[in-house]
Design a protein that fits this description.
Elements: E1 2-6, H1 11-28, E2 31-36, H2 42-48, E3 53-55, H3 66-90, E4 94-97, H4 103-112, E5 117-121, H5 128-133, E6 139-142, E7 154-156, E8 176-179, H6 187-203, E9 208-212, H7 218-226, E10 232-235, H8 241-247, E11 250-253, H9 257-266, E12 270-272, H10 282-292, E13 296-298, H11 306-317, H12 320-332, H13 338-350
Helix pairs in contact: 1-13, 3-4, 6-11, 9-12
Length: 354
């Protein structure tokens, strides 16, 4: 089998795509090629994982200036043509769109060439590229059952995450809050946590706080925490995130698709602070889905203050039975075989290639 994975831009797109590619290689001895753009994180992660990468030129359409949108529209025909040229050289049996800048041109080219297509959509609301091609693709792999209404043919597969997240103890001995905002940190969360940590330590005896800040705010957060003693740890980056999850009673974080998938795999209760400028407000939709399931609490950034954060965290940590119910609800939403199921869908579609 020969497969192309089109898309990228952020780790939320590329990391699951790599897991799918590795599963295709393992299960079906697939020859796999990635298509991305020069601006995306795929330029670092894909070659490092041992997969070839080809680039097309296309920009953003959502949450950008009119000039950028016009430039993107003018680039689109050329990027579709570039994708068609790559397909003619590679002869893929299936094209998998993972969202992000390159996904739209790649999937449009595949549809025009009548190559079987599979959309991978990890968010509750599909991104712009996936919505554009939704009517035309051969199939879709989604994380949330409700997302299926956007596609004619889909399966709920979940999002591939590292196996270690599925083997985490659910009840740490010491009450611990893990705070993070992705690899770059989240300035709004960092700012309010600096202001809230002291009050939380007073209200919750024995509490420990572990905070991944990102590079930009690390020095300020570390200085603010220095006066609070060893109960608070600040890290600009945490390499062993499954280990950090294992120590945590409660998570405070953004609600991107990969984070949500890791939380459900680990069975951890969470306070989500969605990134308010995410495309199509998809982080809020992800958080709402877990909140409806009883697995999380959503605290919108506009309402994120020292008072609301302290009260939310204190009320959760003071109610062990609620934390346990949230953990169980989160675990029910996990998909331990996501990569295998998506690879199986791709293989079935590839078998239908004319």
């Amino acid at each position: 089998m020969r497969a192309i994975l089109a898309g990228g831009g952020t780790g939320g797109h590329v990391i699951p795509a790599l897991a799918i590619a590795q599963q295709l290689q393992k299960e079906y001895n697939a020859e796999t090629l990635f298509i991305g753009t020069a601006r995306g994180i795929e330029n670092r992660l894909v070659p490092a994982a041992g997969f070839p990468l080809r680039l097309v030129q296309v920009g953003a359409l959502k949450n950008v200036s009119l000039a950028t949108r016009l430039r993107t529209f003018s680039d689109l025909p050329r990027s579709v043509w570039e994708a068609r040229r790559i397909f003619r050289e590679f002869h893929p049996d299936v094209v998998i769109g993972v969202g992000g800048y390159a996904s739209g041109p790649g999937m449009l080219a595949a549809v025009l060439m009548r190559i079987p297509t599979l959309v991978f959509e990890p968010n509750f609301v599909p991104g712009f590229a996936n919505r554009v091609v939704a009517r035309f693709v051969s199939g879709a792999a989604v994380h949330f059952e409700e997302t299926g209404r956007y596609f004619r043919r889909c399966e709920v597969t979940g999002v591939p995450v590292r196996e270690a997240f599925f083997h985490i103890a659910s009840e740490p001995a010491t009450p611990t809050v893990l705070v993070f905002g992705g690899s770059q940190g989240a300035h709004a969360i960092n700012r309010v946590m600096m202001d809230s940590a002291g009050k939380l330590l007073l209200r919750v005896p024995g509490l420990r706080i572990v905070h991944q800040t990102g590079e930009r705010d690390f020095n300020d957060v570390q200085a603010a925490y220095a006066k609070l003693g060893g109960a608070v740890e600040a890290h600009h980056f945490i390499d062993d995130m499954p280990g950090a999850f294992a120590r945590a009673s409660l998570l405070i974080c953004r609600s991107g698709a990969s984070t949500v998938a890791e939380i459900t795999a680990a069975g951890k209760p969470a306070v989500f602070v969605p990134f308010p400028r995410a495309a199509d407000d998809h982080q809020k939709r992800n958080a709402e889905a877990l909140e409806r399931a009883g697995a999380a609490v959503m605290l919108e950034e506009t309402k994120l203050t020292r008072e609301t954060l302290v009260e939310t965290v204190f009320s959760l940590l003071a109610d062990a039975s609620r934390l346990k119910r949230m953990a169980e609800a989160a675990r029910k939403l996990s998909h331990p075989n996501a990569a295998r199921d998506i690879a199986s869908m791709a293989a079935r579609l590839a078998a239908r290639k004319p």
